[in-house]
Description:
The complex is a heterodimer. By secondary structure, chain A is α+β, with helices and mostly antiparallel strands.
Amino acid sequence: MSAENGTRSYKLEVWRQARGASSGRMVVYQVNGIDQNMSFLEMFDRLNEDLLRRGEDPVAIDSDCREGICGTCGVCIDGRPHGPLPNVTTCSLRMREFPDGSTIVVEPFRADAFPVVKDLVIDRSAFDRVVTKGGFISVNAGQAPEANGLPVPKDAAEAAMDSAACIGCGACVAACPNASAALFTSARIRYLSLLPQGQPERTSRVLGMVEQMDAEGFGDCSNHGECEAACPKGISIENIAKMRREYLRASLRAG
Amino acid sequence: MNAPALREIDVQDDLESRVPDGPIQTKWERHRFDMKLVNPANKRKYTIIVVGTGLAGGSAAASLGELGYNVLNFCIHDSPRRAHSVAAQGGINAAKNYTNDGDSVWRLFYDTIKGGDFRAREGNVHRLAELSVSIIDQCVAQGVPFARDYGGLLANRSFGGAQVSRTFYARGQTGQQLLLGAYGSLMRQVNSGRVKMFPRREMLDLVLVDGHARGIVCRNLVDGRIESYAADAVVVATGGYSTAYFLSTNAVNSNATAIWRCHKRGAYFANPCFMQIHPTCIPQQGEGQSKLTLMSESLRNDGRIWVPKKAGDARSAQEIPEDDRDYFLERIYPAFGNLVPRDVASRAAKRMCDEGLGVGSTKRAVYLDFADAIGRLGENTVRERYGNLFDMYHEITAENPYRTPMQIYPAPHYTMGGLWVDYNLMSTIPGLHVIGEANFSDHGANRLGASALMQGLADGYFILPYTIGNYLAGVAPGKVSTDHPAFGEAEGATRGRVAKLLSMKGKRTARELHWQLGRVLWDHCGMERSGPGLLSTIEKIRELRAEFWSNVRVEGSGEDLNQALEYAGRVADYFELGELIALDALARDESCGCHLRVEHQSPEGEPIRDDEDFAYVAAWEWKGEGSRHALHRERLAFDNVHLAVRNYK
């Protein structure tokens, strides 16, 4: 399969699903001339250019920043959300990770709460709706006190930043056998609960967000830990434990 | 204006900035008092469209909702949290003077005017510096996890073009954290019902009724429906247009279509050739590359930039001893060293590579070396400061920057140019307000690092919410609906354009043609521009545009999620915009900031300004298909900062 100029070739098995269709199917494509420094999505760009030239409908696939921070991209590659490497998003994955001539299976992130829009594009608006139920600190522009008037211990600020680093890609949901959104939801709850600014709404936040998470059709967490393994930003499953404590505390208070 | 292409351009000095008179320190305060107000009970009668959900659009939509307006907020992404502000790495400036190193509002104002090489408006820039302190307060109150010292107070670092440490940061993800702060506020307003979100919508036209902006036409990117929305005012916050150059640090969906549609409806486009080329990006690795990745300017706090002293030195970086290295920024600019402004650093790197001193496989790269910092601070401290950036570099290049120096090269990153706005951030179309990178207002011919986040949030949280009231107070609310024939006309034009793109069935893809356009712009309208080069560029772009409109191939249906169609529509606009970029660069027959005309440079390659003839904002008016743009000049006055040659030595 190997071309003489050092480029690589792959067989892709790609999920194709028409918009509005309840089901789809795997379609096989051959891609050639792939430079090992190309990203996974640049390899898809090449495939889609080939399809356009052949008069076929290109594969719908979402991406934007292509540097691992916006959370737009994300597909299951050989059954793993964002592919084989830990702490790497789909867009940051390079083709040097895939041996020449290999077969790569590409599917959308699958979950009832993330319906497929078309091909590899999914609807993750459920995440936004979870955030609307308290994933913020209520402060209008203009109301803020002097920034250094409220010291935040460095270790709390660092731990808050660890949780706040979530990019909202949904890999945690796709990896979970229950399609739970516990890692996503808990990361935001924990981040805000660690900060003094987050205290006034601590109780209503966890109750509201958890209720919405359940209403969206995400499954329950049963401590598989797949979410943490799939997370491209290294968000710890410890967040889920903390969310449970927050929830218990809030339930007793709201009792 | 001697070139034939310029002789027939209609030029007028008729633009009024509406910056208030009086001492600069109190302009904004007095203006806030002078502006008309909409009383709290009446605000809910007004509807405002905000296009974009980045730092400017997201903060504006949230703040307008908080004030009680009805807000319709649109974005092309699946969620407002994806806007490209999310990718800003290094930090946000504010004149807090927490480091006790002599910072002040006046110094931030001065640094920004000087950094912009005296091509920004003094009144706007002073207001920005004043508001910088409130932004930090606001973001901290929202819970943005800025870096802190052991006492729990906020930490700062340094950025280019300044000799004080005034940059606030959240590791290498400052943009993400600020955006999530604004996004949280926005989601709170969505929950309250004041803001209605419209994700996966692309604005394809602006609708004017009796000369005022009263709505937009969008394409629903999921099902392809063409939709109209009416309002009492429109705010456009859709970012910059670096993607015209094909390879840039911007996201692949960042585009110029919304601002270009506004331009074609009558909004003047200001300083289109002011394009920031960022010095520290990962060099291009191959033809299939879709974008370039920035390595934050914050790395220049501790990284040292160098090339071998001898051209053709084949040794690896580690094998080259100190005596054979040229730390060229430290040598040429001892006062600012590695922290000179971006335009200065980019040009210096280019000159080194032009002289054959470049490194790496393509010889179009210079080293950014952390060995000294790791020796001085230890690897752990360096990891704490820049860990995620080092990881990103490793993912892309498979090299370990803790062991071998990074290789970097300049790349298109940010556009100082954009739609012209007055002091109220209103364009030349009444009711159309433009904020953030989409406008031209504050950065002159070169933006300083950590100032984009500051401007986006100043516009959205603290300027537009006041100034839009001044406009709305003169408007009777809710008078226009989408039944007005102007909406039908705009929808019809949009449908016609979509149909035309789908019907050509040519032989070239939009991506190929975009790549060619980017190459032409980069070669002749990048870090160096010349009269003859720009003239040939205009001709070349016209040829590419003609080829696009006769030979492009877009597959699929207009009534479906069709990313090839979305992309082709954006590329079509880049050809028109690209020609205007080149025309503006040709008409500005001086050098300033990022804009280096080879005809006007010192023997060391520094830009030579011509303040007598060119101390103006060049605002271009669209005169219709096939007609020449007209030029409207807004003269810039420097009453507070003395016009001088920038000196970073």
